[in-house]
Automatic annotation (TrEMBL):
NCBIfam families: PRK12887.1. It is a multi-pass membrane protein. Its EC number is 2.5.1.115. It is found in: Membrane. The lineage of its organism: Bacteria, Bacillati, Cyanobacteriota, Cyanophyceae, Nostocales. The chain crosses the membrane at residues 28-47, 59-78, 105-131, 151-173, 185-204, 233-253, 260-278, 290-311. InterPro entries: AtHST-like (IPR044502), UbiA_prenyltransferase (IPR000537), UbiA_sf (IPR044878). This is Homogentisate phytyltransferase. It comes from Chrysosporum bergii ANA360D.
Length: 312
């Protein structure tokens, strides 16, 4: 005989699943890999060794960044409920799993927690989190609502993911490890790569959302240029990223293993182009799947680059 789960257990499971969707899992994974990847890069670059105290500090930095992540994506959902009912009906506010009041409570709580945790963890982390939250607020919240303007919308996304997160986290880990807060060449290489890469993410993400964006007058590059042009632009931007990393490998930057860096990025570049040939721009599901594939490439960079540093 099948057992029936207690109502409270079922409610908890349902709420946690809704919260997981509300946090936008692909961004949570990206944020997590950014934090832990940059810590693994900081260890060989600064010449220090692992300690339990360090891991505790990294853990709290990770929590602060996760809370900030949920604040930013949650605020965007609060302001986009009607648009999401068309573009992303599975999201908790659009589907009715969360009420507007619940959404606001989660966003406010996460925003406060991120700032408090960052304040307790270190000054560079606090500056990074505060600046990220400010840009995320300006991106979604009226009257500024920068997401209405294609250039500024893209600028918000790649400035936070590309510049603020990488430089801010590395400075934080440098400070936490007792080193002079400086930015070495390897971190600039990663920052430029991620900066350009997230521009591709920023323009590509609107391709499957054309219907809702058009209906609610959200101007995007996709609506201005057409999905095929934006798809091709994103591919060539990503290609530029990988060719740049291959060139860095050829130039043999001392903090990175050149053969590993060049070969891994060449393999990923070839794989990306092969995967792109199967995308049907008339199929919204196929476009969304390729968008998630681009995020997987983003995750992969925070695995490849730390290994290249460790192997140097």
């Amino acid at each position: 005989m099948n057992q029936i789960s207690p109502p409270s257990s079922h409610f908890s499971q349902t709420w946690l699943y809704a919260f997981w969707k509300f946090s936008r899992p692909h961004t949570v994974i990206g944020t997590s890999l950014s934090v832990w990847g940059l810590y693994l890069i900081a260890i060989p670059i600064t010449g220090t060794s692992f300690t339990i105290e360090q891991l505790i500090s990294v853990f709290f930095a990770w929590l602060a960044c996760l809370c900030g992540n949920v604040y930013i994506v949650g605020l965007n959902q609060l302001e986009d409920v009607e648009i999401d009912k068309i573009n992303k009906p599975h999201l908790p506010l659009a589907s009715g799993e969360f009420s507007q009041h619940q959404g606001k409570l989660i966003v406010i709580t996460m925003g406060i927690l991120s700032l408090v945790l960052a304040w307790l963890t270190g000054p560079f982390l606090l500056g990074m989190v505060a600046l990220s939250l400010a840009i995320g607020t300006a991106y979604s919240l009226p009257p500024i609502r920068l997401k209405q303007f294609p250039f500024w919308a893209a600028m918000c996304i790649f400035s936070v993911r590309g510049t603020i997160v990488n430089l801010g986290l590395f400075l934080h880990f440098n400070w936490a490890l007792g080193k002079t807060p400086t930015i070495p060449a390897a971190i600039w290489v990663l920052t430029v790569f991620i900066l350009i890469f997230t521009f591709a993410i920023a323009i590509f993400k609107d391709i499957p959302d054309m219907e809702g964006d058009r209906l609610y007058n959200i101007t995007t590059f996709t609506l201005q240029l057409g999905p095929q042009a934006v798809f091709n632009l994103a591919l060539w931007v990503l290609t530029l990223c990988y060719l740049g990393m291959i060139l860095v490998g050829v130039l043999r930057l001392s903090a990175l293993n050149p053969a590993f860096l060049a070969m891994t990025h060449l393999v990923v570049l070839v794989g990306m182009w092969m995967r792109s040939l199967a995308v049907d721009l008339q199929d919204k599901t196929a476009i969304s799947q390729f968008y998630q594939f681009i995020w997987k490439l983003f995750y992969l960079e925070y695995i490849i680059f730390p290994i290249a540093c460790i192997l140097a």
